Amino acid sequence: MLVVTADDLLLDDILRLVAAAGCEADVSRDVARIRARWRLAPLVLLGADLLAAAVAAGLPRRDGLMLLCRHRPQPDTWSFAVDVGAAHVLTLPDAEGVVVSLLGAAAESAGTPGLLIGVVAGSGGAGASVLAAALAVTAARLGRSALAVDADPLGGGLDLLFGAEGEPGLRWPELSEVSGRLSAGALHRALPTACGVSILAHQRGRPCDPGAEALLAVSRTGRRAGDVVVADLPRQLGAGSSALAAAADLVLVVVPCDVRACAAAARVTDALSPATEFAQVVVRTV
What pLDDT sits at residue 23? Predict the structure, then answer.
């Protein structure tokens, strides 16, 4: 993204926010030399100190323009902001949270959205967690960014399947209160990884049942950034796991090939039906 300001104090604040959002900045102090970059940059952060100069230089109106001020905007500021097409006029430091959110949204919506897959066992011992891990590893081997989300608080911990139980990184107890839009880059860096997959698992000895907000915040952040997100869902859906199933592009119900397992799976699919119409059965034959 393009940052245009000659105000050193404002530039310091902007660069700090850009870094917090996991983005990179192309900085210019001269509006006379930015016409091509002005048109092509996915997002432009224009300092109020160069607003009049931008208008005088005839820079065209464009989408994705944020005007940032260190002081309360004056009447002529609003007039010039309309001339350049500013979508947001924000004053720092009061609007820092808004700026970081907008930066994160711009950075992570630039690519193709990813895929959110839920995996649930149709019966006990069906191997749903193994399939969830295998899907995430396969996505990583195919060159996709992959995120495995452990949504079963009573499971053994998805990190065990990856052999990552000793790897450093955050688990659900540290992330159970997150909500809204997160930085995908920061999330991946904070989690343990194995086989090319970032893993958000429950932690043995520290019971934690993240709610719908936390489950959706993590999963949607990955999907928005283009990740293949695989969620290991519990058989008995709670409010959080139901919301996650509803948000999934596909939910796979893993069923062993025997009569009793099929009878149990029928009850699981009945429980899933209010949450999603995108459920498919995977029959385990071995």
Answer: 83
Beta strands in the chain (DSSP E): 2-4, 26-28, 44-47, 65-69, 88-91, 115-121, 146-150, 193-194, 197-200, 228-232, 250-256, 279-284
- Give the residue among 56, 6, 10, 62 at the shortest CA–CA distance from 36: 62
Rounded average pLDDT over 250-262: 96
Q: Which amino acid is at 20?
A: A
- Interstrand relation of 115-121 and 146-150 (parallel, antiparallel or unpaired): unpaired
Q: Of 267, 251, 284, 274, which is closest to residue 151 (Cα–Cα)?
A: 251
pLDDT at 262 over 70: yes
Residue 70 DSSP symbol: S
Q: What whole-number distance in Å separates Cα of residue 182 and Cα of residue 187?
A: 7
Question: With bands split at pLDDT 50, 70 and 90, how would you rate the model's confidence at 188?
Answer: very high
Written as six digits, the tokens of 245 are 């199933």
Instruction: Compute the distance between CA of residue 23 and CA of residue 145 in angstroms, rounded to an integer.
Output: 18
The tokens for 202 are 């429950």
- In this predicted structure, what is the pLDDT of residue 109? 58
- The answer, yes or no, to whether residue 110 has pLDDT greater than 60, is no
Average pLDDT value over all residues in the chain = 92
Domains of the chain are 2-108 (3.40.50.2300), 115-284 (3.40.50.300)
Contact partners, residue 188, CB within 8 Å, separation at least 6: 145, 147, 198
Q: Using an 8 Å Cβ cutoff, are 160 and 192 in contact?
A: no
> Strand pairing of 193-194 and 197-200?
antiparallel
Return the sign of the alpha-carbon dihedral for residues 73, 77, 79, 80.
negative
pLDDT (tens digit per residue) in 130-184? 999 999 999 999 999 999 999 999 988 999 999 999 999 999 999 988 877 677 8
8 A C-beta contact, residue 55 and residue 80: yes
